[in-house]
Specification:
With about 230 residues, the protein is an alpha/beta fold. The chain has a single domain, classed as TIM Barrel (Alpha-Beta Barrel). The chain is about 30% helix and about 25% strand. The protein is built from 8 helices and 8 strands; from the N terminus they run E-E-H-H-E-H-E-H-E-H-H-E-H-E-H-E. Strand 7, helix 8 and strand 8 form a beta-alpha-beta unit. Helix 2 packs parallel to helix 3 and helix 7 runs parallel beside helix 8. It is globular and about 45 Å long.
Length: about 230
Amino acid sequence: MIRSIQGTSLIEYPGRISSVLFTAGCNLACPYCHNPELVNVDLLDEEFCLSHDTVIEELNERAGFIDAVVLTGGEPLLYDSNINLLRRIKEETPLAIKLDTNGTYPERLKNALSYVDFVAMDLKSSPEKYIFATGGRARFNSVRKSAMLLLNQTETEYEFRSTMVPGIINAEDVLLLLDEFAPAKIKRYALQMFRSEKTLSPELNGMPSYPSEYIEALAAKMVDRVEDIQLRI
């Protein structure tokens, strides 16, 4: 269920100019989510959603201005139908495809991999804190399966990313996540600054972020286990 299209983005697909497709609905309720309007939607209301035919048509019209498309959310793998949309984009457009996912649907991710060029997967917190970080909605087992799926394949580019939210994920939590995947060396990991201008939980609105120095110090501890550390601060 595609709620909207952002025509052009310079930041959503690393190194490419992309259009962004926003999926309505998410199976998680992360309190710091910056797209609350895509979480709290009436999933039965299809009046304001775009058909796959419309999406393909609009992407092809923009193909001279963009070279990629990003499917994000919400959670795109909430719907089996979005795997078919990825297939159609792969077959019917010239665009590179990036998928954003929370990793809680490993079987659907496996089915989607042959159609995408890049996967960005969120890691919300350490395994023991996962249920808290996702608003009581998810445990780490399914996320681990998705992460190992990406680590054990070579065809699709990927990154893991964590939004550094005080009280939800700290430096120790990130290092514990890396321990979960040892001895594998992660190709790319993005540490993202928390922005509190708009959040799913009103209690987090306006909450201060970690200082950039805190995130930089964490990155220095990750260099032996991650090939490429991205700081989005």
